[in-house]
Structures are given as structure tokens and as C-alpha cells.
């Protein structure tokens, strides 16, 4: 199936110039003006990613992944006229309950997660099931930079430059059978490295599980990500492989995936199991359907502080309505929240 993205999410590089790119260009020009050979800059700064995200700590990716990321198609999809959230906020204000429930816990605790070696299982209703080393799993796909809004159900949001590939490309390869109606994702279960799984946070029946309808997963905006800000994913953001579905609340975008299953029944997701009346299977961003305990009409865009809360109106489908609304034309979004 070939779906053409609508104009509103396509862009050219000139649409966004985040501070980091601007500053990096100045560094380059300054170096050139001073008669410095560019080759005297460190390798990271000379790379395309380093030029874009000069203020971001270089990652520690294995060589094979660093090479794949260096070959990313930059700025394939972006957000017009909205600044990219600083790397510091995107990596220190996180939800990843496997590492604790405070926003600062994932950054503090996720260092214990071992992401290499990593393997991913594909099973269920597929013609080509298997278990793949991550490097082999990624081999067939061109990585692209996708700059997306991320809207958490808790009414805060960010703009994050992800690196990944459409899940549709994977689905076309593994050949779902005619019985496959949904796709189910599972996060690593490893209490040794994930302190949140061994604490008394007994509400969650680990591992974390999420799911999509197959046609949602086939949408070109739905991606599997391996990087952000020009480098590999930091552990707290779901290394080494996570889902990103920009028109849905953030909890759908499951982190540190080890298993992808094609299934015939709608999977029971973690947040539905905890509180089905508050967190639905669809979880499409919708300013007109409030959470039972708070309004979804507005959101705090990070960075957000007491004196500059940076509040904005929440957009239908998180601003991706032109692209995705047709997936839900037969659905009562009030019932299917
Ligand atoms: N495995 C797992 N995935 C998860 C979560 C989690 O607790 N565990 N939290 C979700 C929520 S609520 C949000 S808002 C996003 C946050 O992603 P970020 O920390 O990269 O911004 O991850 C989602 N994916
Ligand atoms: Mo969230």
C-alpha cells in the first residue's frame, strides 16, 4: 500500500532552523573564517548530525548503529514554526515506569539497561516470523529524521527530532496473514536492570504492552525509532528501539521493544489494564474529549516554568488530522477514547 503524506507535514529544511543548527553553522563559519581546517573539529562535529545538533552530547552507539544514523535522510518530516524542545528537557523529563515514576527517575536510573546485544522477536499471524539481532532487524530500512510533536496524556508536550523508519516497511516484509488485525508490542522485562519492575509498583503487570490496529500501524507517520537529535536514543527515551505514533497520547509510544506480534484480537494494553475508564486503546489526542480527572483542551509545551508556563491549545490528532482523521471516520471518538 502506498500512502502519500499530505503537504502540511512535508517540508524543506528552510522551514525549521532550531537554535542548535543555527549555532552549529556559526561554529563552522567561525572556524572557516579563522582559517581552521574543518578536519580539526572532532568527528562528531563534522558529521551531518553533529552539524545539526551541536549542543547535544554525542552518543555511545556501536559503530554499526552510528554508521546507520550518519546515513539518515534528514528532515524528512517536520513541524512548521514550532521550536524543537531542548535535548536536556527531552532527556530529563520522561515517563518510563520501568525506571521509576518521577519524571527525573528514567534519566537517573536507565543507565543500568543493557541495549547491546539486543534482539527483537516477530511472531503471531505472520508469514515470516523470526528473532533478529537489532542490526539485522534494521538492515532493510532507510532511516529518516521525523520531527514530531509528542503529546502526553498528562497535558504536557514536546517537539522531538526522531530517527527511525515507518513500521509499514517492516509489516510489508514480514507478511501479515489475513487473520492479522492488530499489532502488539512488548517492552523488555528484566527486573535486574529495571528497578521499577522489582519495586512495589504492583499496579503494573510487566512487561509494558501496547498495540495498534493494523491500518494505524500501516500509516506512514507511525515509526519505529532508533535515534533522536542526530544520535542513538538515550536509554531513558526507550533505547534501542521504540514506537512513535505522533497523533496519539505518548503512552502508546512504547519503549525498549523486544517483541512485535501480529494478532487477531485487540491486545490488552498496560494502561487499559490499570484504568480502562481513563486510558483507552485508541488514545488519539483529542482536545474535545477530556480525561475524567483533567481537561485535554490545552497543554504545557516544554520547556515550561512557573513564570513562562508556555501553554498552548491542543490540536485534534495532535496537529496530524489532515493525515490521519480518515482512519477514524467510522468511529465514535467519545466512546473510543
Ligand atoms: N515501556 C514503556 N514505554 C513507555 C512508557 C513507560 O512507562 N514504559 N511511558 C510512555 C509515556 S506515558 C510517554 S509520555 C512516553 C514518553 O516518552 P519520552 O520519555 O521519550 O518523552 O513514553 C511512553 N512509553
Ligand atoms: Mo505520557
Automatic annotation (TrEMBL):
GO terms for biological process: protein repair. SUPFAM superfamilies: Oxidoreductase molybdopterin-binding domain. Residues 114-271 form the Oxidoreductase molybdopterin-binding domain. It catalyses: L-methionyl-[protein] + a quinone + H2O = L-methionyl-(R)-S-oxide-[protein] + a quinol; L-methionyl-[protein] + a quinone + H2O = L-methionyl-(S)-S-oxide-[protein] + a quinol. Its main location: periplasm. Mo-molybdopterin binds at residues 94, 97-98, 152, 187, 237, 242, 253-255. Its EC number is 1.8.5.-. Belongs to the MsrP family. This is Protein-methionine-sulfoxide reductase catalytic subunit MsrP. It comes from Pseudomonas fulva (strain 12-X). The lineage of its organism: Bacteria, Pseudomonadati, Pseudomonadota, Gammaproteobacteria, Pseudomonadales.
